[in-house]
Please model this.
Amino acid sequence: MSKGSVPMEVQKILNEYDLSKLSVATAGSHSALQILHGAKKEGLRTVLIVKKDRLDFYRTFSHFIDEFIIIENWSEILEKDVKDNLIALNSIIIPHGSFVEYVGSKNLQKYEVPIFGSRKILEWEATQEKKMELLRRAGIRVPKEFKSPEEVDRLVIVKLGGAKGGRGYFLASTPEEVKEGLEKLGNPSNYIIQEYVIGVPAYYHVFNSKVYNRIEITGMDIRYESNVDGLRRLPPKYASKVSPTFTVVGNIPMVLRESLLITVYNYAKSFVEVTKEVVGEEIVGPFCLESIITENGEIVVFEFSGRIVAGTNVYIDGSPYSYLYWDEPMSVGRRIAREIRKARDKGMLEEILR
Model:
């Protein structure tokens, strides 16, 4: 195996792996079940890093989880014995939103276990300013951004950095409201103020395949958020008295008007290209472009996620889009495993691992 894009220390570990016994590993949260279920479908071994208080639940899926690495706290993922265990099992880590949040994007840059996808993009994702810079440089339409609370002159949404699932986001329409909201959150330093674009939310699941040399739209969803979605059930006179919050509690399947798919594809293609140029490491595998579609059919992207998103969980048996590529059930978890398996068989692992 040539070095390719794999860090030298990871390359040394890969050289010692028994590639006939590769394992897919992740943490017990977010999208772990579909990741491991998909890996088992593709004939790979599976490893779950799981907190002790979650073990009973995940053991009910032992028919597709081969090994459990049991920990007390998520910080233990960084400890040597956990990493040694993963390496002994020939593991490839699949980072999801919770995994990144628990371990930290900076810690993942030096994590010795091979990771599927891009490490560097996770650091860009963790910082709102860098995230929006990348989208702008890709030529993707994004909301107007305000550099400081004093600039706010319309309805805005204030968002925190990192994979927080919408926690801490709030709406404001004046400089005073922005400052008050930030104060309630402890005056965080990593946040962004964006114009609140009116339209329909749509989250596009995309997969950049090195094995098949193509970009696939694997599905899309709408996020169900508390309490902003719950407010719709209240009469207006009561709803107006409650401040909306945006904590994601679930996801709803979505099928997009076909003519809009072309814009989504072009956005995704531009995004992949800009990661090569700006990040210095091409994004590989799953990512998500998160948008609002206006009444004029304009797609305004307000965020991206540089790894698998929880919205893919609505398509464990595949989406209408993944079926068009594969003519068989294909979750994103299984799609990841197929890319790994095919890359292994073609001697391309160094092109998809970091």
Summary: The mean pLDDT is 94. The first helix runs from residue 8 to 16. The radius of gyration is 20 Å.
